[in-house]
């Protein structure tokens, strides 16, 4: 009394019984069932935090759009396309599994996340027998870099957002005897390298994009043949009328920062009224087109954008790092505390000696 359709197909389905007693006898036809196949559900991946320091842990969270529970989650890292590994249909990149059999938990933690975890990640979910898989999630980029790299990435102009049809330069500045650094970038379809052949023109350690396009948006960094990383810069190229000029590099608590709302056609309204937003919430109105934070703190970290009568800028992440005392500072503190304690003990000893003499 059961019929399995594999693979399932759209259609109107009925059933009836057939009995052979002194001839064929058909039952009445059942009610009709319309079977409609929906598109495969899409997995959605989020990474928190996306920008971290070596030794920090990071959590990958996976969900399924418009679906109930009962899924098992599978976690992958994106790599260059390689035959034999699972990949997208367009073969834009392959994926390497992080967990062989998947997890029943909808989150996966990398502990600790080091520089070798920098790259793209995707997830998908499956359930049932045979297993029914969702589509892969859109890749998310995770950056975990060295705080004291032997090379640094510099960009000109020094900001994270850029208008289209402008010139942009990226420079790998080497320190010491480091050699063999290459500029890389990560876009939605995975990691790309090859400035001078695939994008931009290369001259020494400088890559120049003569006329920026929206597809030049992505995360850029320098990488050595041995797998060392420079700092990374998340660059947005926008075709709109307004961008937010924000620092391309992490700031330290106590630094002063100015966010500037720039109009592509600045001469039309040199001093517009501008609204500044942090994490989607309006935080300030300015008539000068800029907002200054005299001394940033960790609470100022977040996504910023601006909006004027000419339009709205994309969002940019502003990173604020706490102040970490250096070794010399720690030693100085220990010495000072030691001297204070020694002074107190010496004073007590002198008082006791004086009392002893007086009593005698």
From TrEMBL:
Entry-linked SUPFAM superfamilies:
Immunoglobulin (SSF48726)
GO MF term (any one)? transmembrane signaling receptor activity
Respond yes or no to whether keyword Coiled coil is given for this record. Answer: no
- Extract the Pfam families matched here: ig (PF00047), Ig_2 (PF13895)
Q: Which UniProt keywords apply?
A: Disulfide bond, Immunoglobulin domain, Membrane, Signal, Transmembrane, Transmembrane helix
Membrane-spanning segments: 331-354
Ranges where the Ig-like domain occurs: 41-125, 240-319
Report the superkingdom from the record: Eukaryota
Keyword Iron set for record: no
Q: Which GO terms describe its cellular component?
A: external side of plasma membrane
Gene Ontology biological process terms in this record: cell surface receptor signaling pathway; immune response
Stored PANTHER family: FC RECEPTOR-LIKE PROTEIN 4, IMMUNOGLOBULIN FC RECEPTOR
Protein name (Swiss-Prot/TrEMBL): Ig-like domain-containing protein
Q: Which organism is it from?
A: Coregonus suidteri
């Amino acid at each position: 009394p059961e019929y399995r359709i594999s693979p399932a197909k759209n259609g109107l389905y009925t059933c009836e019984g057939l009995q052979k007693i002194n001839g064929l006898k058909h039952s009445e036809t059942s009610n009709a069932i319309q079977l409609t196949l929906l598109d495969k559900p899409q997995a959605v991946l989020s990474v928190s935090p996306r920008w971290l320091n070596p030794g920090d842990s990071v959590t990958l969270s996976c969900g399924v759009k418009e679906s109930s529970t009962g899924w098992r989650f599978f976690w992958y890292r994106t790599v260059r396309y390689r035959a034999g590994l699972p990949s997208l249909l367009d073969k834009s990149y392959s994926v390497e599994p992080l967990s062989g059999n998947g997890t029943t938990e909808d989150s996966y933690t990398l502990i600790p996340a080091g520089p070798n975890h920098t790259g793209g990640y995707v997830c998908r979910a499956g359930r049932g027998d045979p297993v029914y898989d969702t589509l892969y999630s859109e890749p998310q980029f995770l950056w975990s870099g060295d705080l004291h790299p032997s090379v640094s990435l510099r960009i000109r102009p020094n900001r994270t957002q850029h208008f289209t049809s402008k010139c942009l330069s990226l420079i790998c500045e080497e320190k010491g005897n480091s050699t063999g650094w290459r500029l890389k970038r990560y876009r939605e379809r995975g990691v790309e390298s090859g400035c001078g052949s695939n994008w931009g023109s290369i001259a020494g350690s400088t890559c120049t994009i003569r006329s920026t396009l929206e597809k030049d948006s992505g995360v850029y960094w320098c990488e050595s043949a041995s797998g060392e990383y420079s700092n990374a810069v998340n660059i947005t190229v926008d075709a709109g009328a307004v961008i937010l000029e924000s620092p391309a590099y992490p700031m330290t608590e106590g630094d002063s920062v100015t966010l500037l709302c720039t109009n592509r056609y600045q001469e039309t309204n040199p001093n517009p009224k501008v609204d500044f937003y942090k994490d989607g919430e309006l935080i300030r109105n300015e008539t000068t087109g800029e907002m200054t934070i005299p001394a940033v703190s960790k609470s100022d970290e977040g996504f910023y954008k601006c909006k004027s009568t000419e339009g709205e800028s994309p969002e940019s992440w502003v990173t604020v790092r706490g102040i970490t005392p250096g070794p010399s500072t720690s030693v100085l503190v220990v010495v000072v505390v030691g001297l204070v304690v020694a002074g107190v003990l010496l004073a007590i000893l002198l008082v006791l000696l004086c009392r002893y003499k007086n009593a005698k």
